[in-house]
Structure formats: structure tokens, C-alpha cells
Amino acid sequence: MDDPPTEAEIVALSSDHMQAAAAIRRVALWQRLPWLPDLHTPWEDEQYWRMHLLPNCTILGAAMGNRLIGVIAYGDNWIEQLYILPDFQGMGIGSLLLGCAKEEMGEIRLWTFQRNIGARAFYERHGFAAAEETDGADNEEREPDVLYHWRRLPELTPVLQPSDG
């Protein structure tokens, strides 16, 4: 059900992939949240990925064959972007990408829109808790959003009890 598909391969993305990464974000966001204002051109989206995210984040992609179907950008305890093409959602690809970020970071924060019920359920299934809700005044879409937080639980070391023998 939410198991990672065997065909998906996780790959590190380079500048050659930024146009495709920006396009995945654009398609996934506008198909799932059509009420959001379209504030940037595809070229501006690509430049954001190329000039801001690529130098400051780890950017991974999920690929099937030669097709990029999902992307994640993360670093400094933040997930900046996580998008899966709508036709490939619900197949475990987002879980696979999120798992890569969780392996590298012991604490993660991220923002999503309050009305993005699917994303909220996804993050909550993966142990994230809502930490703050806003009216959207501080994001460019002016859409109410929610800050999620996840923290890795500390490893428990078993305490050996002295034996009675």
C-alpha cells in the first residue's frame, strides 16, 4: 500500500535536473491545490531551484526509467520542497524520499498549506506534529499554512540489571 515501489530509484540531482524538478513541483502543486495563485513563470521556478535550492540543499529525485517522478530538497533541519507527480502519489515514493531526509537529519521542520489535507495526513503518518498555524500573511500566496515538526527519538540503551544468581 505505502511500500516503496521497486522500480523507483533515488538519485542525486544536479543543475541538469532543475528544469524537471521545478516542473514536478508546478504540476503537483497546481493539480492538488488549484486555488493557489500562480505567482511565477516556469522559468522563474527553475531559477529558484537552480540559484537558491541547489547551492543550499540536498536535492534528490525519484526516477522510474529515465523519468523523474518525484523530488525532495532539504537541509539545515528543513524540508524546503517535496513533490511527487500526481499519477505516482500513493505508491510510497514520497515515503522513500522523506526517509532519505530523516536518515540525514535528527530534526525536521517544514511548512505546508492548511488546506493541503493530503500532505498533512502524509506528514502526520510519518510522525510529524503540527507546531504552529498562521493566517498566511508571511507567505507569498497569502494562504493559511501550518508548520510541522519531527524529531528522531533518542536511541534507548538497555540497562543491565544485576542477576540474582
UniProtKB/TrEMBL annotation:
<dbReference type="Pfam" id="PF00583">
    <property type="entry name" value="Acetyltransf_1"/>
</dbReference>
<dbReference type="GO" id="GO:0016747">
    <property type="term" value="F:acyltransferase activity, transferring groups other than amino-acyl groups"/>
</dbReference>
<dbReference type="InterPro" id="IPR000182">
    <property type="entry name" value="GNAT_dom"/>
</dbReference>
<feature type="domain" description="N-acetyltransferase">
    <location>
        <begin position="8"/>
        <end position="154"/>
    </location>
</feature>
<protein>
    <submittedName>
        <fullName>GNAT superfamily N-acetyltransferase</fullName>
    </submittedName>
</protein>
<dbReference type="InterPro" id="IPR016181">
    <property type="entry name" value="Acyl_CoA_acyltransferase"/>
</dbReference>
<dbReference type="InterPro" id="IPR050276">
    <property type="entry name" value="MshD_Acetyltransferase"/>
</dbReference>
